[in-house]
Amino acid sequence: MTQWFVVTTVPQGEIKAAAELQSAGLATMAPTYKRASRHARRLIERTEPHLRRYVCVAADTETVIWRESTKAKHVARPLTHASGAIARVRAHEVDRLAVLDGVSPDKDSGPRLIVGHVVRITDGPFIGFTGPIVYLSSEVAQVELQMFGAARRVPIAVESLEREQVAA
Q1: Residue 146 structural domain
Q2: How many Cβ atoms from other residues are within 10 Å of residue 112's Cβ?
Q3: Global model pTM greater than 0.85
């Protein structure tokens, strides 16, 4: 089961750290906003992180976080408790962070999809398969499917996905 953990980054390295961890195959959440400032009579628009020096990372185990964070150049270390365990984040808190990132759901669009959600494919050659979203853009999601005894990442159109209901 995928859980969300927190890692600290080097100063001003949140966006680069998230990109490095995504290239390693991990889902990340690092909400940003656009900031406009004037310098030398020019308007400069920059992307700034909402959470300075922190990135949320989805992984199956803490071992994956330790291994990938030591490889990433812009990750300082995982955020740990006094006991040495990596700090976890609940999924609904990650959903709140997604809203900060401007991914607010429309009232008519149904449930919003974010990285880490388990989805069912409703159209195409993989109809009926379920798996977690590992990458998401506005048009295409990369879903990890279990096929032939191995995990495979498959690009699927977002309109062909519906979120699986989790039994409470």
Answers
A1: 118-163
A2: 14
A3: no
